[in-house]
Amino acid sequence: MNGNSDLTGKTMVITGATSGIGRAAMRALAARGAYVIGVGRSADRCREAEQAILAEFPHARVRFAIADLSSQRQVRALAAVIREYVNSDGGGKLDVLVNNAGTVSSWYTTTEDGYELQFAVNHLAPFLLTHELMPLLARAESARVITVSSGSHYGARIVWDDVMLRRRYGVLRAYKQSKVANVMFTAELNRRLGPASRIRAYAADPGLVSTEIGLKGTSGLANRVWRRRMARGVSPEQAAETIVYLAASPEVEGSAAVYWKDCRPKTPSCYARREEEAARLWALSERLCGLGDAEQTSVTVPQRRAVAPGG
Amino acid sequence: MSSYVLITGAGGGLGRAFAAECASRGWDLFLTDVSCDVLEPLAQGIERLCGVRVQTYAADLTDPDAREQLWQHIERQGMRFHALLNVAGIDYQGPFDERRVDEVQRILRLNIEATVEMTQRVLHHRDPARTLRIVNVCSLAAFYPMPMKAVYAASKRFLLDWSLALSQELRGSGVTVTALCPAGMPSNPAVIRLIDAQGFMGRATTVNVNDVAAGTIRHALAGRSLYIPGVLNRILRLAGEAVPPQIVAALIDRRWRQSHEKVYGSSRGKVDTTATATIAAQQA
Question: Which of A6, A103, A203, A245 is deepest in the core (most CB within 10 A)?
């Protein structure tokens, strides 16, 4: 089991580490000796979380970096801070990246980049952060990228003609779309890395958890529904088990399974497994993050190029 | 010739929603805001998302010299416009006697002076081939005398009356003018807290920014002179017309104090100006 394995010498990053599942996972991984860099939005909450871990485990090696993941500039700046931390006290390599931070908003909110908040925080931020940290992950003997998805991804699809859901926004609709994107990103990352890669990606389904994610940006009915759901959910510590397992257990090594729940592989939705859809999402995400050669093609619509004069 | 949509206050919640809405229609954008820090990521994001051209120019529109420079820049670029969205607006809410003189002046300069000047200037830089759509972001506050937001509400009243008159005046000249009168919009966490503190009424009168932006553009394209998003808001406005303004002011005062006490503890004296200034800017 993942109970006692010693993680000394491992370097890990967890986003959304000041509360809920992320905090519980950080605590568990730090307790076993890993050097864990937590990411949070508020300096106060980061300090509080750091002190809480150190109070319990005085020898834990933990550090926090502050970033608002809704901003791509801040995601890039965060990657630079992580690089610095990893190079100075993390052995120059990153063994585990846990993309855990997620958000929910009942009101339609745009980020500073002009994107819908949940898509930006829950999907684009992990996509960009993973890309930025890839060189560090490549330096580890065997690295894992764990992205926290959810059972909400079942039945969800990417709304291609309105990805930002400007025309028909619903809090659950946006959440489900971002969570299916997490699974598709994970599967596509593995395909792109190839079976021989020392980096593996996993999507973790924490189950129904009593965290406050659904309370933060919601009000009214959604807020009340979430409170009821919370009452039936498991504790953040139990929910973090799958993440901790994926981050720490040697048993996971070499597994080709993409989606994990209760420390066991589970089949993700049929839609999430469709390769063309995942490849399309990857290309869109690259474009929206300004990565690859997407930058040059973004201004001209592809169809238009096909009918260019002389063509 | 390139034809653009000019959006002021583009970096705020409503401005960003307008930028996304217009870009999704394939329109090229010219965005202004006080800070280039908010303009750059937005322009980049919108370009990547919609593939339109987005130009930016940072300017403090409360400053007449900055406005002059802005228009010189536009002149040099030879830009033409088929829409102007006057989104920039500000408020420092709280008791009038506690506001600094320059704060009150900024409200008047941005909400009234800058909006009127931008509109006047754009009429001379329109794209001759298209109908020019002007949108003035007023507020539901324009319909009522509002204690604690007295100057702001009155400035929006000015915009509303002026906008409606201008719309009539320009009828038939290929220019439409639309006054947008939204309730507070949930575009940042501080406003969302205020809306929640107002309970059912707060939520029921609130409309998502993306819907406000889309509805406004639809109304502008249809040449409508007034758009109030939200059915309940339209009813409240009609009800407000039937009640004497002194009574409306007293009722608003009561509701405002209650919700503020929930959020900030006290309605007088302890209002966090930086937070409320941004809130109001978002509320437009």
Answer: A203
